[in-house]
Amino acid sequence: MFYAENNSESDDFVKFINEKCGTSWGGEGDLISEKMDTSSPAVFANAELIKMYTGRRVRAVVQVIRNEGGVLVGKSTDGQQLTVKGSPAFPLSHFVEVIGIADGNQSIRAEISTDLGENFDAVAYDGLCQLANGKHRKLFL
Amino acid sequence: MYSSQQDGGAALFSGGGFMPSQATQTPESGFSKSRGVQGVIPLTVKQISEAYHSNDDKSNFVVDGVEASNVRLLGLVMNKAERVTDVTFTLDDGTGRIDVNRWVNETSDTNEMAIIQNGMYVIVNGSLKGFQGKKHVVAFSVRPVVDFNHITLHFIECIHVHLDNTRPKGAGLPQAQTSSMVQTPIRSDVKEYHSSLPNQFSSPTGAKGSETDIYKLVLDVFQEPASLARDHGLHVDEVVQKLGIPINKIRDAIEYHVDVGHIYSTIDDNHFKSACNG
Predict the structure, then answer these.
(1) Which residue of B152, B162, B166, B167 to mutate against A (max A Cβ within 10 Å)?
(2) Kind and range of the H or E element at B50?
(3) Are B118 and A91 in contact (CB under 8 A)?
(4) Nearest CB to A36 within list B49, B148, B159
(5) Is there a contact between B148 and A95 if contact means CB atoms under 8 Å apart?
(6) Are residues B168 and B203 in the same domain?
(7) What is the mean pLDDT of chain B?
(8) What is the pLDDT of residues A79-115, one digit of tens each?
(9) A positions 51-90 inside 8 Å of B (CB)
């Protein structure tokens, strides 16, 4: 059925195999090496650190203050107000982890948002943000 | 030490913890550092991307000078794909992405993987493999993160283990030595003892004043060469005679030294002998 649908060249066939099997064979029969991707890390960040990462991928935890139609306003782990664009609404006072692009001006354009529930230790997370950006940066970035 | 707090993942595997046990860290066995059997090491994908093959064995990776064969990762599931014999997905832990593969042989394996969905936070315990330059993880277990404080915990553990493995060699030695002794003596107490006879025992820690002195005097009597030479040791009355201290105090002292293992009873409840150099 594959052949019937795609009257194809070998490159298409390889692409098809890769898609269906999750492999990464190249067109010449070589297995493309080093598929591990560390090129776009999401930096652990609080409101203070987000300022340094404008335009880059970050991850931050906020406690929901209010939902304003596609824009979520929350309190960052270092106690400041953060605006999250493009996030679905979450229950008030829940902690939400947002992975997205730091937009400057205390805001993030969300790609992935995860509801962490109500019981989350924001202080510990904030401490981790600082470790991951300071002394132990090389484990993360 | 951590295993009891974890969701059972670490306890499944040898060692049950992240840190090399003290037994494998003795200074005499030079090769144990890189070859000792490890538990599961928590790592970030970034760390794995920088891991390299150990010289002697091409199948193993080394992180911070420690063999990283069994690893724990925590991150988001992406691109999950189910096949007949296995399930694959990409794990994104925020520092990078790595492919994970979980063989499904039993129904329990299938059930475990069925609840894993894209976008879910999971903890992966698995074995780090390299194939034609590409690293991937063959998972023993893939479990959803239920308590999200585990996210913070995992990365703090990564830092902790990294610090432990990279601290200057020997820094952990004095600590290891003291804790391996039966008693943990307070240094000054040990010195007091050394005046009479060389011995490795400590005086009762915390006890002060005359009580301590009596304990010490009684032990000294048992450790006199003449006492050590006798098969049956000393009768309680002999100790009383030598020291001129009331018998009830002597018995208290003897009871203490028996409890901590300095002396032991021999032919009956009245004869005791030092366990030291006996």
Answers:
(1) B152
(2) none
(3) no
(4) B49
(5) yes
(6) no
(7) 76
(8) 999 999 999 999 999 999 999 999 877 899 999 999 9
(9) 59
Closest CA to B154 of B71, B39, B74: B74
Report if residue B3 sits inside a domain.
no
Q: Which residues pair with B139 in a beta bridge?
A: B126
How many Cβ atoms are within 10 Å of B213's Cβ, its own excluded?
15
pTM of the model: 0.60
Alpha-carbon distance of B162 to A139, in angstroms, equals 9
The separation between CA B261 and the C-alpha centre of its own chain, rounded to angstroms, equals 25
Give all strands of the β-sheet with B66-67 in edge-to-edge order: B52-53, B61-63, B66-67
**Quick check: B230 contacting A, CB < 8 Å?**
no
Nearest-angstrom CA–CA distance, B278 and B268:
18
Q: Alpha-carbon Rg of chain B, whole angstroms?
A: 28
Q: Which residue has the tokens 């399930």?
A: B87
> Is A43-139 in CATH node 3.40.718.10?
no
The alpha carbon torsion through B86, B92, B96, B97 (nearest 10 deg) reads 20
Residues B253 and B212: beta-carbon distance below 8 Å? no
B97 reaches A (C-beta below 8 A):
yes
B111 and B153 share a domain?
A: yes
The answer to whether residue A137 neighbours chain B at the CB level (below 8 Å) is no
Residue A33 has which token pair? Answer: 């090496």
Domain residues for the domain of B228 are 182-274
How is residue A39 written in tokens?
């090129």
Nearest CA of chain B to the CA of A6: how many Å?
A: 23
CA–CA dist B211, A137 (Å, integer): 55
Overall average pLDDT of the B236-257 stretch: 88
